[in-house]
Design brief:
The protein has 459 residues and is mostly helical. Among the domains are: 85 residues; 81 residues, no CATH class. It is built from 24 helices and no strands. It is globular, with a radius of gyration of 24 Å. About 2% of the residues have low confidence.
């Protein structure tokens, strides 16, 4: 069976007006510039093979897309040239690929139902958790500063404020209704308006940094909402992109915030050692020292979660104490970024409870989950429901089934209207815990299980 000609690639090359030989020359130049020494020997025959249907090996696709983007003065994604793949990335490719190209490719995948479903079933990439050397991060802002604009649009300070306002709207909606609510609109805005801003011209370095930082925060939110929806490969891609954008903006605390989310995700998917490494990177001096006290506490408590999951009891206890102390130093008059509005005493208590639970201290975990429920604000509906579900679970583990059923009933009440994969997972875990008792007709456990089953069928 012969190969299928890559008509998308052929069409884009035709738009540039370049011959295959001339395109090969430009590919070699871009490859040399980006340190892809394995591509400095690319010739006309390689281009012909790729057009003929031979899929080039990484990093050739991204170098080719970058070369074509420069030739056309607009962003060309891997999907545009028929080279998008939905498999686990090669080690380091998530970090080495051009940030704007990655943003557009992820956005296209996120908006395409079939590709999104395929990615949702793919493997969470442990290879992509391996961070580049510190020097790579240190040079990120310089690399972004020299990126050639792909459009003549001039970005303004007002554009930056618009992106920040939209991020605040989406973020508050996430806390209230869950990550699956409004995600389509969020991603559409990110891959169209925001990508357009990043492709434009910046009148000053302040505007470039401001827009890049605003884009990073929105990419972080896209990742967090995907994480809340249990779409882990997609979440990992967005959170990595957010980290890269934050570094390109020179916004070290925001980079730490995104790395903290990657660490939180690693705990949830059962990769505690990687979680600790990511959390330690989020706590690097330039990220931690320039963060506000509230954000420092958030970074620290996730570090504690990783240590607890890894079984490092003493280190986890020390990290929890430090997180408590850091939050205690936060004041109402502090200059805090809007992204930490959700992190309160209730948040710290929830994460502390999860760490204690992982360390086997169920009584301590129950006390902290109760503290979280007691102090949680009414606007944080999704997290409140998850906390109640977790509280019921530790009560059941201690043999207090009647009390657990009361708590789980409250959790189901709180979940009304919430669109969250994490909330749904607590219902799944609830039914698992109730399974030995669900056949007792007329019992509280049987009634609760029937209600949980009905809720899952409607999700």
């Amino acid at each position: 069976m012969g190969r299928t000609r890559n008509i998308k690639l052929a069409a884009v090359i035709a738009q540039t007006g370049l011959s295959q030989a001339r395109l090969a020359t430009r590919v070699r130049s871009v490859a040399a510039e980006q340190g892809a020494s394995e591509l400095t020997g690319v010739g006309q025959s390689h281009i012909a093979k790729w057009v003929g249907g031979v899929a080039p090996s990484p990093p050739a696709p991204r170098i080719l897309a970058e070369t074509l983007s420069r030739g056309l003065g607009r962003l060309v994604t891997l999907a545009d040239i028929g080279l998008a793949v939905d498999t686990e990335p090669e080690p380091q490719s998530a970090w080495s690929e051009d940030t704007l190209t990655t943003l557009m490719t992820l956005g296209s995948t996120d908006m395409d139902i079939d590709r999104r479903r395929l990615l949702a079933t793919s493997v969470y990439s442990v290879a992509a958790l391996v961070l580049p050397e510190d020097d790579w991060f240190a040079r990120a802002a310089d690399r972004a500063r020299t990126r050639r604009p792909l459009s003549s649009r001039v970005v303004t300070a007002e554009d930056v404020e618009d992106v920040r306002e939209m991020t605040s709207i989406f973020s508050h909606r996430d806390q209230k209704r869950g990550g699956r609510s409004g995600r389509t609109a969020l991603v559409a805005y990110l891959r169209t308006d925001v990508a357009g801003f990043l492709s434009g011209r910046f009148p000053s370095e302040d505007v470039r940094r401001g827009m890049t930082s605003a884009a990073a925060e929105l990419a972080y939110l896209a990742g967090w909402t995907a994480f809340d929806g249990r779409e882990h490969p997609l979440a990992q891609g967005w959170l990595t992109t957010a980290t890269k954008l934050a570094e390109e903006a020179g916004d070290a605390p925001l980079a730490g915030h995104a790395l903290r989310a990657l660490a939180h995700q690693a705990v949830d998917v059962g990769k505690p050692r990687h979680a600790v490494e990511l959390a330690e990177a989020s706590l690097a001096s330039r990220r931690y020292d320039h963060a506000c006290w509230r954000e420092r506490s958030l970074l620290g408590v996730v570090h504690a979660r990783g240590l607890a999951a890894a079984g490092e009891k003493k280190a986890a206890a020390a990290a929890l104490l430090r997180a408590e102390q850091d939050l205690g130093k936060a004041g109402s008059g502090d200059d805090e970024p809007s992204r930490v509005f959700f992190y309160t005493e209730a948040s710290l208590a929830h994460e502390t409870a999860a760490a204690l639970r992982d360390l086997g201290d169920l009584q301590g975990a129950e006390a902290q989950f109760r503290r979280s429920v007691r102090t949680r604000g009414a606007q944080f509906v999704r997290t409140h429901a998850v906390t109640l579900g977790s509280l019921g679970a530790v009560q059941a583990q201690q043999g207090h089934l009647d009390i657990a059923c009361d708590t789980w009933s409250q959790a189901l009440d709180a979940m009304s209207g919430v669109q969250s994969g994490r909330a749904k997972e607590t219902v799944v875990q609830m039914r698992r815990a109730l399974s030995p008792f669900r056949n007792r007709a007329g019992s509280r456990a049987a009634e609760l299980d029937a209600r949980a089953r009905s809720m899952l069928s409607q999700a």
